[in-house]
Amino acid sequence: MGFSSYLLMKIGLDSISPFNLVALRFGIAFICMALIFLPRFHALSVSILAKGTLMGILLFLLFSGLVYGVNHTTASTAGFLASTTVIIVPILESILKRRLPNKSIILCILLVVIGLYLLTVKDTFALDRGSLYCLLAALFYAIYIVVLDRIAKNEDTLLISIIQLGVTSLLGALFMLCVETPSLPETPIQWGAIICLGLICSAYGFVVQPIVQRYTSPEKIGLIFSLEPVFSAILSYIFLHEVLNVKGYIGAALIFSGIVLSKITITKAIP
C-alpha cells in the first residue's frame, strides 16, 4: 500500500471525507492509466471486464476499511494493523489448500495477536473502531492478493488493473453521494497528498502488482509489505508527531517480530 500512504491519507482526510478520498484517489489513477494505455482497451473482453470489476470491488472494500481506520486512529497504528495481511495470506492459502499452517506460522499468529492487543486495546477488552476498520482492511487485502493470484496468470493483467481503479473510484463516488457531502481538498498540501496517492500509490502500485504477481506467489507478495509499519511509524513521527505509549511500542514490536518470523518461515518454504 506504500510506506507513505497512511501519512498522505491522514493529510487528505483533514479536508475531505473517507469515500470522497477513495473516489478522488482512484479517479485520478484511473484517468491517468486509461489515457496512457488507451490502445490496450481494444483487447477488452467480457472476461477481463468481469475480473477487473471483481478486483475493483475488493479494492474498494479494502480501502474503505483502511481510510475509515486511518480517520479514527493514528497513521502509525494503521500501518502496523494493515501489515497483518502478511499473516492472513498464508492462513487463507492453508484454508484453500485444506492443510494446517505449520508451527512457525502459528507462533507468528500468536505474536501478532498479543501485539494487536497491546497496541490497540485500551482500558476495556475491546478494539477501538479505527483498529477494527484497519484489521478488516488487512483481511480484504489478503483476500485481494489470493484472488489476484488466481486471476493474474491467465488474463491481460494490465487491463484488469486499470479497470479495477475505475470500479473502485465509481463505488467511492456512489457511496460518497449517499452518505457524505462531496468536497475538494482545501490547500496545496492536501491536493499534493491526494495526487500522490492517486499517481504513485494507486496508479503505479496497483497496476504493477497484478503484473508482478503473474511471476510469484501470493505469500511472497504479502511479504513485500513486511517493513511497511516501520516506515509508517517513522514517517508519522516525523511529519505528524505521533508517539505511541510504552504498551503500544511493545505491541508494535511483537507484531513486527511476528511478521519478520513469518517472512523467514515462508521464504524458506517457497522455492
From TrEMBL:
The protein, known as: EamA domain-containing protein
Organism of derivation: Sporomusa silvacetica DSM 10669
Subcellular location: Cell membrane
A Pfam family assignment: EamA
Domain EamA, first and last residues per copy: 5-120, 130-261
Source superkingdom: Bacteria
Principal cellular location given in the protein's record: membrane
Key words of the record: Cell membrane, Membrane, Transmembrane, Transmembrane helix
Family: Belongs to the EamA transporter family.
Residues passing through the membrane, by range: 20-41, 48-68, 74-92, 104-120, 132-151, 158-177, 189-209, 221-240, 246-266
Bilayer topology: Multi-pass membrane protein
